[in-house]
Write a structure and sequence with these properties.
Elements: E1 4-9, E2 16-20, H1 22-39, E3 45-50, H2 56-71, E4 75-81, H3 90-103, E5 108-117, E6 120-127, H4 129-142, H5 146-171
Parallel strand pairs: 3-4
Antiparallel strand pairs: 1-2, 4-6, 5-6
Length: 212
Amino acid sequence: MGLDLVEVAAGANPPVCRIMDYGKWRYEASQRAKESRRKASHATLKEMKYRPKIGTGDFDTKTKKVEQFLSQGHKVKVTIMFRGREVHHPERGMQILDRVAGAVDHVGKVDQSARLDGRNMTMVLSPDRRAQQSRRQAEISETPTSGSTDSQTSDTQTTDTQTTDTQDTDAQGGRAIPEQPVPAQPVPAQGKPNGSGEGAEPAGQPVGDPHG
């Protein structure tokens, strides 16, 4: 049959063996290992540098990039670079780091607190899977379904129709106007033609002298 007797638990008492196709089992194990390596995310450490006197536009741009890195599963090292006498005011660097951590708290968390290293102040952020999942669930719950949208559209059309009927009733003074009958027009009677073939006499007029 082409099967092999393979020992799968040598440390057990007694040892456990299994009858299987050993070549097929090795092939399937290698395929599973290759698939797991393909799906594994290779997280790297990214770095984003700030200055204590950074402007609002640059701060927003750099912070959006930090948020993108965290969403992709990377760790981010945030560095505040001091120059000259700026190193004597580390509180300004702490304010920048606190702003960055607060702006990306929905996708990441502080892995290493801020610390001063020479003329640089650094802080490490790591992805927060739980916060990212909660955010995705909140976005899904806020998205309206097509059925509810169609129902709301139908209700709006019904309301518009009722509003139009109300306006028509108001224009008529709040009561129905009865339909007025159209008076009939009198039709003139036509006389009978005489024997000579001339035109007919008007109806109701005597022809000749009845006593003559």
